[in-house]
Design brief:
mainly beta, 2 helices, 330 residues
Length: 330
């Protein structure tokens, strides 16, 4: 008990609300905040992904030019995906496609990065769980997303997002279940997007990868400097790198450091997206069970993962935020 306050929400808690303006109209969200200055927004109407995130007033995440949008603007296929891509700290890609859009031999169109982010959470629960110890109470948001269609896939994803009243971490745990009566391929990638001012030419990236390869010729131009963060560049073309064997990454800046960690057995692939353009300035750090190669290439790979009927895949991802300090020389 704290004799200085009458309500625990004075220091840490949840704010649940619905946006009423512009392209956000109708989007439901939960803002989570704690005593250490960590604050982030869980977008219930966008698959319980995480939109804006900040630490002690410092922005950590990237917001695309479209801003936050309601899922009603999502369009499957073609290039329209870019008009509803919000960015945010966490943008989940999948569950049937990760990477470029395409039409399969059966005529089914799979939009870029899949339709997961168009899903709305159900069975939502916000809970403050008392516990003793230096971390303080648990602040947890739980919900269920359902992706299914007649003659198609039938997935559910149960998500827990957790932080603590006195600890600078965000923990994300997912259980993906194949509810169909036949095995189904699963593509899943966590597109984590960092923006200014956490991201700048003063920031330093480190990844504990065993192998790192450029995706294409454009990325090969920056292979030797892939971990060097540039200031905004005119006419910059994105550079994407595929890493193997990684389970940790850290972005250090003078103001703050964000350390990511994940279960490499469940998420063996890690993609790095360097996009250092003017007005389009973002670093994507993206653990997944696949790289963003598209459904056709994925299914042709011997590494494609399938879930049997009733099988559940468990994943976990953690963001730990620290105060900044001197960055090592690049």
């Amino acid at each position: 008990m704290n004799a200085y306050i009458g309500h625990p929400g004075q220091l840490a808690g949840f704010l649940r609300y619905r946006f009423t303006e512009g392209a956000m109209d109708g989007l439901e969200a939960v803002e989570v905040y704690n005593e250490t200055g960590l604050r982030f927004t869980v977008l219930l109407g966008r698959g319980m992904d995480i939109g804006p995130a900040s630490y002690k007033g410092l922005n950590l995440s990237y917001l695309a030019a479209s801003g936050m949008t309601s899922a009603v603007y999502y369009q499957n296929g073609g290039k329209e995906w870019k008009h509803s891509f919000t960015g945010g700290l966490l943008y989940t890609c999948g569950l049937c496609n990760v990477g470029p859009d395409g039409v399969m031999d059966d005529g089914v169109a799979y939009g870029q990065h899949g339709r997961y982010t168009s899903l709305t959470a159900e069975q939502v629960c916000l809970e403050r769980i008392p516990q003793d110890g230096p971390d303080g109470d648990i602040l947890e948001v739980r919900g269920l997303m359902r992706q299914g269609g007649i003659f198609g896939e039938n997935f559910t994803l149960r998500r827990k997002i957790r932080t603590y009243t006195r600890k600078n971490v965000i923990e994300v745990e997912d259980d993906v279940c194949n509810n169909a009566f036949e095995r189904a391929p699963l593509m899943l990638m966590y597109h984590c997007n960092y923006g200014y001012p956490l991201l700048s030419e003063q920031a330093v990236l480190s990844v504990n990868a065993a192998q790192s390869l450029p995706r294409d010729e454009e990325a090969a131009k920056g292979e030797k400097t892939m971990f060097t963060m540039l200031p905004p560049q005119p006419g910059y073309a994105e550079q994407v790198f595929f890493h193997k064997g990684a389970d940790q990454a850290a972005l250090r800046s003078p103001a703050a450091t964000v350390r990511m960690s994940w279960d490499a057995q469940a998420l063996p692939c890690f993609t790095q997206w360097n996009m250092f353009g003017q007005g389009e300035y973002v670093l994507g750090l993206e653990p997944g069970n696949c790289h963003p190669v598209g459904r056709a290439a994925y299914l042709a790979s011997p590494d494609a993962e399938y879930l049997e009927p009733g099988q559940v895949k468990h994943t976990r991802l953690c963001f730990a935020v620290e105060d900044g300090g001197a960055c090592p020389a690049q």
